[in-house]
């Protein structure tokens, strides 16, 4: 969570960063995409303090990215499942992962890849024009204010 507010700014990226821009938050989302659902599972996959994890999970639930679902009655225990809003972050997380693989490579190569379930292919995030359908390269993109 950023300390600065973006009052007076009309920026989708700034609004997104207010919710998911903190380091631990993105790593929790990555772990959820990898199948982690329980508090102890997040603790074991991330080197994160319990109170920080609890705070970040609550914030993700508050913003509708995760939902708390009971899996045990006595005592009551919950797991955290991605909502459709959370699943919608798949492209952003994979894009960041692939950017890191290209620009911050490790000697042993990428530690993960995104596979297409039910197929032998891998996923590649790309930019595509909604008008002509053609794949667009970075240098062909013009981000402009529209209001």
UniProtKB/TrEMBL annotation:
Keywords: DNA-binding, Transcription, Transcription regulation
Pfam family, one: HxlR
Domain (HTH hxlR-type) ranges: 11-108
Top-rank taxon: Bacteria
SUPFAM superfamilies: Winged helix' DNA-binding domain
Cited PROSITE patterns: HTH_HXLR (PS51118)
Record flagged with keyword Transcription: yes
Record protein name field: Helix-turn-helix domain-containing protein
